[in-house]
Design a protein that fits this description.
Distance between the termini: 30 Å
Helix content: over 70%
Number of helices: 8
Oligomer: single chain
Largest sheet: 2 strands, parallel
Shape: globular
Number of strands: 2
Structural class: mainly alpha
Order of helices and strands: HHHHEHHHHE
Strand order of the largest sheet: 1-2
Radius of gyration: 18 Å
């Protein structure tokens, strides 16, 4: 796996910055469809090669989740209208659900440890709603459901701590947090106001977030220090 990562990582980073350059400097048709596809397809090939060789069912969830994210992301390359926006939300929700299933485990955890984290998540959502609520209109229900699934995903990523190795845990959490940053910028751009470097932030945080989640899951190992199946 380490040898594969050393080969794959520079290729992925080059493809990501190529896509960013094309987005900022070149016409969407046909260049962006090509470069954006290359970024996610490279991840799909990496995950597909590893998970199908190992024949690990839960790794298949990651692969199928990436496919769904790719389709949803592809729909928003050119423009966003009511139909493509709703379809892309549904697809992103489906991909997040598969990721969340991948984050689940059978170990017990201390519910009290979740309260500060859940409070922080609530404040985050409340802040976003304060900014965008009056502009949601027909999108209120789908965006609310999207936020709910996002919180579930980050919650299940959070409770992996102590169950998997620290490297896997912090890699996945970094990816999830970048994913949340991507969504924050996208939501503010769509329903509130343009912000500085928004196109760069959206593309960089989304792609790097996906990369870190994928790598964190692929290197996942059970934490040998877990005792009595309880997370301290």
């Amino acid at each position: 796996m380490i040898k594969q990562l050393k080969l794959f990582t520079p290729i992925f980073i080059c493809l990501l910055f190529l896509d960013i350059y094309v987005k900022i400097n070149l016409p969407i048709m046909p260049y962006r469809y090509v470069t954006k596809s290359l970024v996610i397809v490279s991840l799909l090939l990496f995950v597909g090669y590893n998970c199908f060789i190992k024949n690990n069912y839960k790794d298949h969830l990651l692969f199928y989740g990436l496919i769904i994210f790719y389709i949803g992301d592809f729909l928003t390359v050119d423009h966003i209208n009511n139909i493509t926006f709703i379809v892309s939300i549904i697809l992103f929700l489906s991909g997040k659900i598969l990721y969340t299933l991948k984050f689940t485990h059978k170990e017990d955890f201390n519910i009290m440890r979740l309260f500060p984290f859940m409070l922080l998540c609530f404040l985050y959502v409340a802040f976003l709603y304060e900014l965008i609520f009056h502009n949601l209109k027909i999108y209120f229900i789908p965006v609310t459901i999207y936020f709910f699934i996002s919180l579930l995903m980050i919650l299940f990523a959070f409770i992996r701590k102590g169950v998997v190795s620290n490297v896997s845990y912090y890699t996945v959490m970094s990816g999830v947090l970048l994913f949340i940053l991507f969504e924050t910028v996208l939501v503010i751009k769509t329903f509130y106001h343009d912000i500085l470097y928004q196109d760069f932030l959206i593309m960089f945080c989304y792609a790097l977030g996906q990369y870190l989640i994928v790598i964190g899951i692929m290197i996942e190992e059970k934490n040998l220090d877990v005792k009595n199946n309880i997370i301290a």
